[in-house]
Amino acid sequence: MLRSSAWPASARTVDTARLEESARVAASAGRHGSAPADRLAFARSVAASAPLLSAGTAGGAFAALAAVGAADIALARTVEPHLDALGILAQAGVPAPEGSTWGVFAAEGAGLRLTATSGGSGGSFALDGTKPWCSLASTLSNALVTAHVGDDRQLFAVDLRQDGVTVHDEAWVARGMPDVPSGPVDFDGVHATPVGDPGWYLTRPGFAWGGIGVATCWWGGAVGLGRVLRDLAVARPESELLQAALGATVADLADAEDALADAAARIDGTDPTSTSDDDWSLLAQVVRSRVRRAVDAVRHRVVATIGPAPLTADPAIAARVADLELYVLQDHGERDLARIGRIVVERGGVAW
Description:
Blueprint: H1 16-31, H2 36-49, H3 58-71, H4 73-92, E1 102-105, E2 114-118, E3 125-131, E4 142-149, E5 152-159, E6 165-167, E7 185-194, H5 200-203, H6 205-235, H7 240-268, H8 278-306, H9 308-313, H10 315-327, H11 334-347
Parallel strand pairs: 1-4
Antiparallel strand pairs: 2-3, 3-7, 4-5, 5-7, 6-7
């Protein structure tokens, strides 16, 4: 499914066709009532074969996420944070327990706060408060969670099965990704182990790289929608309107892929010992905004072109449209575009 010439060599280490087919089988089982644990089992299988995101492996890591997204968006939403967490743990030199499944809970919410208090000897901490947007918390075994420590935020590894963890799946009423509940979680004196020093998680280059990985899932999901339009155009070769819509979709997806491929090449060619995040934060936000714009255009165009029938009669298409619409809202639209402008005003970063 990769066509851009900008992809680095590491992207060719992943058999995207084979991975997509495996993901499609796993997603089909999940959407027909099997437990979320089945999708997490698939996430573990991907982690056993796909490269984790790092300098030198970004192409392969992004290729794997795109393939899963092309098969099923909700499955990609399950796989991506598991791989992200394993990559973070590897970078920090912290081993993951055998058979564990992971999420990354780093969002903040108005009126909600999670604090970490040192337990003294042994480096243990206790977490108290509420964390929003905790995807699959009721099913995962573990999570990496950010919490406030004084004026900083620090990352902690948490066993979600211990006492003091209360998951609110009932708060999740979304029509997109209904099987990936992402409600708040209450923590009451929950034991947590630090992963890196205060501020480390948010300032390392990998934080920006992970954001590009999420955008790769969006692109994969939009590729799946583009195939719906392509099949319709093939079935009706006399329709120039379908051909025009397909042509515009091809161009949008190619633009987004070029952005992702170029980012992967830059990551793979970087100095892995670098600690500067200035260039990476700008690059990541520009790439995410470019992909979001392309994905939104594809989704709007496909929905307008195919009409209501597939959205009401084909569960796979209906789910893909709803899932993708919700997933891309991890990009904050105009606020993130303003962030790009602010970075350029404050420290440059564009050639013109």
